[in-house]
Amino acid sequence: MWALILEGLAIGGLLGLTGAGGGILAVPALMASQGWTVAQAAPVGLLAVTLSALVGTFEGLFKRIVRYRAALWIALISIPTARYGVHLADIVSPVWLTLAFSLVMLIVAYRIFFNKVTDHGNAPCKVNQSTGRLIWNVKTASFLAGIGVVAGLLTGLLGVGGGFVIVPALRKFTDLDMRSIVATSLMIIFLIGGVSISAHVLDGFQYPVSVTLTFVLACIVGMLIGRSLMQRIDSNKVQKIFATTVVGVAMYLIYSALMG
Question: Residue 234: helix, strand or coil by DSSP?
Fold first, then answer.
């Protein structure tokens, strides 16, 4: 139980600091501590990350740094692909699902290490510098819709919040500042996660109460800690630590899938 609490605190802390990373580590953490498959761990990890993101969303809305129109648009577009991802998770072999999860993790780590997501100069989605809000046009709507399609599919299929896709994508395709990106990502994670959780429930998934409650509460506490530390820790250092952790976890999952 203590291992579960420590995992939840660490995952919630990463989510609060970066607006990403929670879900992508929650699933392997639950697999390791509970002996679960990806399909068993994904709904529980997603629930914990989604409720933690809700706490961060309220904070961001209070501070007026959430771009809620963008969050709602991306979440709306993600609904069909998130539902399809849940369906795929039920029919894909656990070994292949684990390998796919590991590949996505390695891609994320690569992009963080080599700074593939930090170019704001040619961002197609521009911000009104006087208001801090996105300028809405066909191009902006199209790029944000593309983020929703990919994030929804991965959320439903892999049980992750989607922040590891959303944050780099918003950094690449918009010139929002990092505080707005993190806050907006948390709102999107909550909205997309809520859709996927509903799909899991409708498909008959039964949440183990004691494990789920413990993990969810630990993640929420970690989220609050991470948000309070965000202004004190260099975000680039956090991203590098996160990427290193992701590589280690991905290699462990590949080994366990191939040897198990």
Answer: coil
pLDDT in tens, 78-120: 888 888 888 887 888 878 887 887 887 788 788 778 766 555 5
H/E run at residue 128: strand 127-128
* Measured distance CA(28)–CA(45) in Å, rounded: 9
In three-state form (DSSP H/G/I as H, E/B as E, the rest C), the secondary structure along 15-33 is HHHHCCCHHHHHHHHHHHH
CA–CA separation, 95 and 215 (whole Å)? 25
* Confidence at residue 119, expressed as pLDDT on a 0 to 100 scale: 54
Global pTM value = 0.80
Residue 237, number of CB atoms within 10 A of its CB: 9
- The region, left, alpha or beta by phi > 0 then psi within -120 to 50, assigned to residue 126 is beta
